[in-house]
Amino acid sequence: MKPANVILLGLLAFGCRPHAPLARNRRGLHAPPGRGPDSLELRDSGRSALRRPRVITAPTMIVFWLGGTDTLSAGDASSAYDDLTYYTDQVAGELKHAGIAIVPTTADTVYVDGPAHHRRIVVLSGLDYPYGYVLLDPGGPERILTGIYSDDDLLDEIEAYFNLDADSTAVTPRVAT
Fold it and tell me: Three-class SS of residue 67?
């Protein structure tokens, strides 16, 4: 089984998992103590849903693992996969708290359904690394993060992109009339 296919299977189950006892990292955020049955899993080619381009309509972090990873040595691919899933697991709680979805894909194209149902395409093939993250808010430009980001660096990118304050709770702004 190709490594890219196994990773994506776990991403599908990512949102439906029980949380293990958590430990604090330097930001005070909770992180699972180890990967278990609730961890992010991207490598499963049997899931055709992961190969189909996704349509994004709400704030989302896409975790991508493209077919180009099969050019990596087995050790490099395994290490990259382990790091990608570990750091994604570390930030999952913060994303959930902020109402930001995590979506896995092995497709090299993502569609963003923006204002007035204007659909645009984000192409992931041909980037520096065939794996990484895409931060998307349908009303604005995407932020593509290729390669591996530590949980702290990834949280910095997420907070900056989605304009989250690390010291406050996520609250939906109210419209004054």
Answer: helix
